[in-house]
Design brief:
Layout: H1 14-17, H2 34-37, H3 49-54, H4 60-64, E1 68-69, E2 111-118, H5 123-137, E3 141-147, E4 162-167, H6 180-186, E5 198-205, H7 214-225, E6 229-230, E7 235-238, H8 242-257, E8 283-284, E9 292-301, E10 313-319, E11 332-335, H9 341-351, E12 358-360, E13 377-379, H10 380-386, E14 388-389, H11 397-401, H12 413-421, H13 425-431, H14 443-448, E15 451-452, E16 456-459, E17 470-476, E18 479-482, E19 485-488, H15 490-497, E20 504-510, E21 525-528, H16 535-547, E22 554-560, H17 563-566, H18 570-578, E23 583-588, H19 598-604, H20 606-614, E24 618-624, H21 628-644, H22 648-660, E25 664-669
Parallel strand pairs: 2-3, 2-4, 4-5, 5-6, 5-7, 21-22, 21-24, 22-23, 24-25
Antiparallel strand pairs: 1-8, 9-10, 9-20, 10-17, 11-16, 11-20, 12-13, 14-15, 18-19
Length: 671
């Protein structure tokens, strides 16, 4: 299903994170809590994308989380910031920028324009922020920047004379996690007819996925069907194609210039919309923007490290406490990381700034229970540690450092992209001697050109049947060399080296309805998961084995370097195999002269694979989406062609039928 999971793989920059996007949507029909809370035969609603659009029920993210009485968290290293927010509902101020604390009324001659985004890792917001800055720069418009996350019950779209939207897509065409309630409302019966509203959509996605930019495409079509008028054709953007994004922004500005829009003074509507209430006395629903502080109970190495080239993978166990967070096998846990303090200090010292300088906390930063209200501040050091990505800055930072654009390192878009792709923020500051640049005397200028520190998603490696109030993660620790410098993964090394038993980390559940076990426990399954790709399959096996003593056949293709070095969960898998509950097929690439991988084993066991599929079996792939997944799919196609005996065209149709019937599912990432 091409989901998520940075599972085991720490993604070092947001350029990597876009692709990972995978499955979001509605609560699974196979939610593992059915054994704990419902009769075994009772099933929930469909989980495919079409059902997501056709069944506008209560927000699945809210329905899946048990609401619990709000309590202030135990003291943590964040506690120095935490303040009790205003208990009254938060009302969106009519501001040109969401992160602005400026409450001064805008000039009445400006024309109000709505700008709305739905984002998982921040790119859509970045696009809309740039659009807002461009619109404000014309001196003609007053853009209202809004997040879909803040309007789970929708809004009156007729209040807008013009609305411009950027939205990303998760996995099989569903919205970002916290934007799902808004999108469910928009596609449901409560979104009424629209009159006299002009709009345009920038649809973000990754062409390596089947449902490329689907969420944006669906929003575009839905607005048109409700009666809105499209003034700029939808632009579908692959990953971070800023040439396409800038083209859309320029087209929007040009289109606005030809419209007759009312000024603020002429508008009848104030264009203020209520966000979701912040109720400090009521129940708490945890989410990506309002994570739960969960306690680390253990961090254990799963590998035998013998040399500098050996890679480590860790098992992280996390207690969900009284959060009420529930999950199904196949889901992921989102973890909000912290930057390495040494890396933060390196930037501050190079620029000659005061680490304790008090600065405004960005409004888009996640809110812990009992967290500060809008307008609170934190030290520069803390902001760089928990709020901002100090690896991959916004491309616009180069416009500050290279005023005339003549530097050969950033002379054209391709060169600029390559330069940024290889460097962290400190590298760029040092390259351009930013500490001598008068424009960067104020650290706020740099912060404006940094992205939000994004959460990392890890496939849950445990079943709620085995661990109803805790989760296990399987995390590959990322350490490498680049430009003759040592690099580390932000979240993987945070979990491996900078937390200990008792440390609390902000987490949230990420539903992955497109990576689910069959409804019938007797259905056989084939799982292909080399390396940390085994993570969700450990959960699958726990679920199947503990829920039904006579479950269907479980076949696992696992691969790693060496049996005695990185055979993840090898003892558990061996026990299941010995008890007859698992057919385990391994590929240890470094144990012989010629490397052997899971795709080779798949071809070797082609008859078993074919017979299992013919029995109605399901086929799952988890792991690297750039090489491994493609190689496995190619091997699968070859196996089908060989045993079906009808040629390649029929084999391809067979695979398509597997995908259409949800019998072939993927949870892959591209790093």
């Amino acid at each position: 299903m091409g989901m998520n999971t940075f599972m085991g793989v720490d993604l070092d920059d947001r350029r990597s994170i876009l692709w990972l996007l995978s499955g979001a949507g509605v609560v699974s029909a196979y939610c593992t809590y059915r054994w704990l809370r419902k009769p075994a035969e009772k099933k929930g609603p469909p989980v495919d994308f079409e059902s997501y659009l056709k069944v506008p029920t209560e927000n699945p993210s809210l329905a899946a989380a048990k609401r619990v009485a709000g309590k202030r968290p135990a003291p943590t290293d964040f506690e120095s910031y935490l303040k009790v927010p205003d208990p009254q509902s938060v009302t969106e101020k009519f501001s040109s920028h969401e992160t602005s604390d400026d409450e001064v009324a805008p000039p009445s001659h400006l024309k109000p324009v709505g700008v709305l985004y739905g984002t998982e890792f921040g790119l859509s917001r970045e696009v809309c922020e740039k659009l807002c800055d461009t619109l404000k720069g014309t001196g003609e418009y007053w853009p209202l920047l809004m997040s879909m996350d803040d309007y789970p019950q929708g809004m009156d779209l007729n209040n807008f004379q013009a609305l411009f939207i950027a939205c990303s897509t998760q996995g099989e065409g569903v919205p970002p996690t916290d934007s799902r309630p808004f999108c469910s409302w928009l596609h449901g019966p409560d979104a009424g007819a629209i009159s006299n509203m002009r709009f345009s959509v920038c649809a973000l996605g990754d062409t390596s996925y089947t449902h490329f930019a689907q969420c944006g495409k669906d929003i575009d079509a839905r607005l048109e069907s409700l009666g809105a008028t499209r003034v700029v054709s939808r632009v579908d953007v692959n990953k971070e194609d800023w040439i396409a994004i800038d083209g859309w922004i320029n087209s929007v500005v040009s289109a606005l210039a030809g419209m007759e829009l009312k000024s603020l003074a002429e508008s009848q509507e104030s264009m203020k919309f209520k966000k979701a209430s912040v109720d400090t006395q009521g129940d708490v629903t945890y989410s990506k923007s309002k994570p739960y502080l969960a306690e680390i109970t253990s961090v254990t190495s799963l590998c035998s490290i013998r040399g500098q080239d050996d890679k480590n993978t860790i098992r992280v166990d996390i207690d969900l406490g009284d959060s009420g967070l529930q999950y199904c096998v196949g889901d992921s846990l989102g973890v909000w990381p912290r930057n390495d303090e040494k890396a933060v200090q390196e930037i501050i010292q190079f620029m000659g700034w005061d680490a304790d300088q008090s600065m405004a906390m960005p409004s888009w930063h996640y809110k812990l229970q009992g967290a500060r209200s809008k307008g609170e501040s934190a030290s520069l050091k803390d902001l760089l540690t928990i709020c901002y990505d100090i690896k991959a800055p916004k491309p616009d930072i180069l416009d500050i450092l290279v005023e005339d654009g003549s530097d050969a390192r950033v002379a054209d878009p391709a060169t600029r992209a390559k330069y940024l792709g290889e460097r962290h923020v400190i590298d760029i500051l040092q390259d351009f001697r930013a500490n001598e640049n008068s424009k960067l005397t104020d650290p706020g200028v740099l912060l404006k050109n940094l992205r939000q520190l994004a959460p990392r998603l890890y496939s849950i490696s445990s079943s709620p049947l085995a661990s109803p109030s805790s989760v296990t993660l399987t995390v590959a620790v990322v350490e490498y060399e680049q430009l003759d410098k040592s690099r580390i993964g932000v979240c993987s090394t945070y979990l491996d080296q900078r937390v200990s038993k008792g440390t609390k980390v902000p987490v949230y559940m990420y539903e992955n309805p497109d990576f689910r076990l069959p409804d019938d426990d007797l259905t056989p399954i084939i799982m292909v998961g080399p390396g940390t790709g085994v993570a969700p399959f450990r959960a699958f096996l726990q679920q199947r084995i503990q829920s039904n003593a006579t479950c269907g056949e479980n076949i696992l293709f696992f691969g790693s370097r060496r049996r005695d070095q990185d055979f993840l969960y090898g003892d558990e898998l061996a026990q299941w195999q010995e008890s007859g509950k698992l057919s385990l097929i391994t590929a240890f690439s470094r144990e012989q002269d010629e490397k052997v991988y899971v795709q080779h084993r798949l071809r070797e066991h082609g008859e078993l694979v074919w017979m299992t599929l013919e029995k109605g079996g399901h086929f799952y792939i988890c792991g690297d989406g750039e090489y491994m997944s493609k190689a496995v799919e190619s091997a699968l196609l070859s196996v089908i062609e060989s045993h079906q005996g009808k040629g390649m065209e029929d084999a391809e149709e067979y695979v398509k039928s597997l995908v259409a019937s949800k019998r072939l599912q993927k949870d892959v990432w591209i790093s």
